[in-house]
Amino acid sequence: MNGSHNEMTFSTDIGAIESITLTKLYMEELAPEQNMFYRPWTINTTGNDLNKLVNVVGMVKESGAGIVQGSAIAGTVSNMLTPSIAKGVAPIPEGWGTTRIRFKLEVDINYAAGFTIVNRIQGFTTFHDPSFSGKLDPNMVFVINSINSYRRDVHRGFATESLRSADQVVLQYSDTLNADKFMMRPQDVFTAMTVNELTYDPDLQSGNHVNITSAATNAPKFSAISNQSPGSYIAKLLNSYQQAKDQAAMGFDAVNLNANASIIAKETMPVQNEFIKRLSEMLNSFGSTGEFTYNDLITLDPTLDGRTTMVTLDKGMRPVTSYESVSMQDLSTTISFQGTCIMASILTSSGLTGLDFSVSNMTTDGSMAINIIRSVADSAGSDLAQLTARAARLIEYELMPTVTRDGLISLQLDVSANKYMSTTVKVMLEGERPKEYSLPTYANATFLPELTPDQKDLSMLGYSLDNVLSAVNLSANNNSLTNGIVEL
């Protein structure tokens, strides 16, 4: 797989592959991090928020749009779906206090039809041993954290790229197998709803059945980066269920609506990624793999060493101990966590690698002020001004409505977001001292809001969201029109 066109041609669902080329590998030494913590989604349906959601869904139907957009309901669900208090340290190989390397690997999958699928694979190593005197330890393990997949077409010598998929890669790391970790993606929530119909006891707030399909394993599972945004998360639930209802209306299994909605909401399968597929085949891995060594990469492509860049630790880098601890339970900490999560989604959907900006709703006239300081495109040849304008719109309609609880909180954020390194967020709440946080985007798949160490959290979330869907007439238990409620 060194890019030679003498290789065997592989066939996929989008055509025959001529070659797979590891085009470049960038690595950077990192200092130890603060501990990161689980903050799984929790839901609150008290107050008027549920009625507001019902009204918004009704307006979507009346407009004829059909599909609920996450940005359209971001403020509406900002009080309903929020991160919980810290629920223990999120495990990472060798612990957060270990010196390690972040990496970005670019892989070109060249198709016979003339286009290329570009995978930008980002993650971290389990450790870094500097005793190799500038050489990489060939047995150092690389852990995939996220994969952004683009389609590149060339017309008259000009290349354009369009985003195909963007996924976090969740693993049960080899040295943390005794630490339970469960996923709460929309597909897992629908599965939990199906299980809860038989086993959930709302008085005990627990399910009697462990949903094995949601458990993290040493084989990777994907979760769309957009799942980190509350609006996008709820919108995916609403739209998937509506599609299941539409199929039922056409005679397709009207009994198992939640199960069918889970299939519709299903995430990309790792085996659908050609790099992971080829790597897994080479390693004779059972299923798929999300970990590899530098030796594995050199086996795939012996010429990669000449396209590998290693950047040593910046001794002048601000120490993480100078930032606020993310273990606190105050509002600023929650906002910094939400801001980091949502910015990962915004950067990806906008086609940006990095974005520095300031945003505030503490203006004299109550309007929102956004000041873009710097932006960096993820793909060469992109229209940076257009990408930046899209990001600014998402900051206004997705980020701010969420962190301000639909305008109820007055604040200013100074953000330096980087899709491949770390994101810093300075939170300035009215009447409080500024607090600045740093969260490692290169390892954010370890502490996603759709992850929990307690399987009961998934059961409870499924139970509560089933009630939300019922309120907008999308419940699996009631497929008839609810009085006073507008169907999606």
Helix and strand element order: EEEHHEEEEEEHEHHHEHEHEEHEEEEH
Characterize the overall form. Answer: globular
- By DSSP (H or I, 4+ residues per run), the number of helices equals 10
Largest beta-sheet details: 9 strands, mixed
The proportion of residues forming helix, as a percent range, comes to 25-40%
Which segments are poorly predicted (pLDDT under 50) over 5 or more consecutive residues?
Answer: 1-11, 198-210, 474-488
Determine Rg (CA atoms, Å).
23 Å
Summarize the structure.
With 488 residues, this protein is of the alpha+beta class. It is built from ten helices and 18 strands.
Explain what this protein looks like in three dimensions.
The protein is globular, with a radius of gyration of 23 Å. It is built from 10 helices and 18 strands. The longest helix has 20 residues, at 230-249. The protein has helices at residues 49-63, 70-73, 186-199, 230-249, 257-264, 274-282, 294-300, 331-350, 384-403, 455-471; strands at 10-12, 15-30, 41-43, 81-83, 100-111, 116-125, 141-155, 158-170, 182-183, 221-224, 291-293, 308-311, 352-360, 369-377, 411-418, 423-429, 435-439, 451-452. It is α+β, with helices and mostly antiparallel strands and 488 residues long. Helix 3 (186-199) packs across helix 10, helix 4 (230-249) crosses helix 5 (257-264) and helix 8 packs antiparallel against helix 9 (384-403). The N and C termini lie far apart (48 Å). The strands form 4 sheets. Strands 1, 2, 5, 6, 7, 8, 10, 11 and 12 form a 9-stranded mixed sheet that branches. Strands 14-13-15-16-17 form a 5-stranded antiparallel sheet, covered by helices on one side. It has a domain at 73-89 and 323-451. Helices cover 27% and strands 26% of the residues.
